[in-house]
Design brief:
GO terms for molecular function: sequence-specific DNA binding; transposase activity. By secondary structure, this protein is an alpha+beta fold. Helices cover 26% and strands 19% of the residues. The strands form 2 sheets. A 4-stranded antiparallel β-sheet has the order 4-5-1-6, with helices on both faces. A two-stranded antiparallel sheet has the order 2-3. Helix 1 runs antiparallel to helix 2.
Length: 195
């Protein structure tokens, strides 16, 4: 089928005119392609991560080493999607640092240099941060497929886009953080659950 700009245009789901590189707190949801259950399963209302799920968790925590102005907040890896709260430093909401629903994941090594380490970035738009995360997790997943650790996947790991919500106050932050933490107990009726 030929490209027709009248029917094949992509509609942005981002807030028009909003600067996603500025200080702020964002609720992010990233879904797997075709909502395939790649990261584990829910057992007795708890998320049991498989090898791929643990790998996703490690790369999420690595974001704070890659981007000096970013804090990784509360998160949950679900069978076919990932919820997290990301803070681009300097937001006015005091929310506590590095809350993780998956405490069994090892913390990445801290950088001790006083200058910005090579490869570290600051001030990038949120979409570039998410793209880096998706690229790194996809690359490692492919590597594990080639090593026969993980099963093959169809075309890509993640859907092309992601959902984001700008958190505007402390009450909203705590409501969303509670939703993320309780997500495994809601799986039966979750809109992302393909059943």
């Amino acid at each position: 089928m030929r490209y027709d700009p009248n029917t094949h245009h992509r509609r942005s789901i981002r807030l028009k005119g909003y600067d996603y590189s500025k200080e702020g707190i964002y609720f992010i949801t990233i879904c797997t392609e075709n909502r395939e259950n790649l990261f584990g399963e829910i057992v007795n209302d708890k998320m049991i991560l498989n090898t791929a799920g643990k790998m996703v968790g490690r790369w999420y925590l690595e974001l704070k080493n890659k981007y000096s102005n970013l804090r990784c907040g509360v998160n949950i890896i679900m069978p076919n999607h990932f919820h997290c709260i990301i803070e681009i430093a300097g937001a006015d909401i005091a929310v506590g640092a590095d809350l993780c629903v998956c405490p069994e994941l090892p913390e990445p090594a801290e950088h001790t240099e006083t200058a910005e380490p090579e490869g570290r970035h600051a001030g990038l738009p949120l979409q570039q941060i998410i793209q880096w995360f998706k690229t790194m997790t996809t690359n490692e997943y492919i590597k594990m497929v080639k090593q026969n650790i993980l099963p093959p996947f169809d075309k890509r790991i993640w859907q092309r886009n992601y959902h984001e919500h700008i958190i505007r106050n402390e009450d909203e932050y705590y409501r969303i953080a509670e939703y993320i933490q309780n997500n495994p107990t809601l799986w039966e009726n979750d809109r992302y659950n393909r059943g």
